Amino acid sequence: MPAHVSTLQLIGMTALTLATVAWAVVVTRLLRRNRREALAWHAARALPAFPHQLKAAPPRESVELTPAEQDAFAGLVRRLGGRSGRPGR
C-alpha cells in the first residue's frame, strides 16, 4: 500500500473498480440477449403483404418487322450512328 494513499481512498477505488466491472458484465449480457431476441423476432416476422417473387424472368417478347420497317430502322441507325460522341467521326 502506497504511503500517501489513505485506507478510505483505497476502499473507494476498489469499490469503483468492482462497480465498473459489474456494470460492464451486465451491459454486455443485456446487449447479447437483446441482439439474440431481435434477430429471432426479425427472422420470425414475415411480410405477407408482398407477393411471392418469381424465380425466373418472364419470357422474352419479339416482333417480326416488315421489310419497310426494317429499312426505316436501318435508316434511323445510319442517321444516329454519326452522333455516337466518339472523336474522329
Structure explained in plain terms:
By secondary structure, the chain is mainly α. The protein has a domain at 1-46. The chain has two helices and no strands. It has helices at 7-44, 67-81.
Taken from the alpha-carbon principal axes, the silhouette is elongated
What's the quaternary structure here?
A: single chain
Task: Please state the average pLDDT score.
Answer: 82
C-alpha termini separation: 89 Å
Element-level helix/strand string: HH
Beta content: under 5%
How many β strands by DSSP? 0
Task: Determine the structural class based on helices, strands and strand pairing.
Answer: mainly alpha
* C-alpha-based Rg, rounded: 37 Å
The stretches of 5 or more residues where confidence is low (pLDDT under 50) are none
Give me the secondary-structure topology.
Blueprint: H1 7-44, H2 67-81
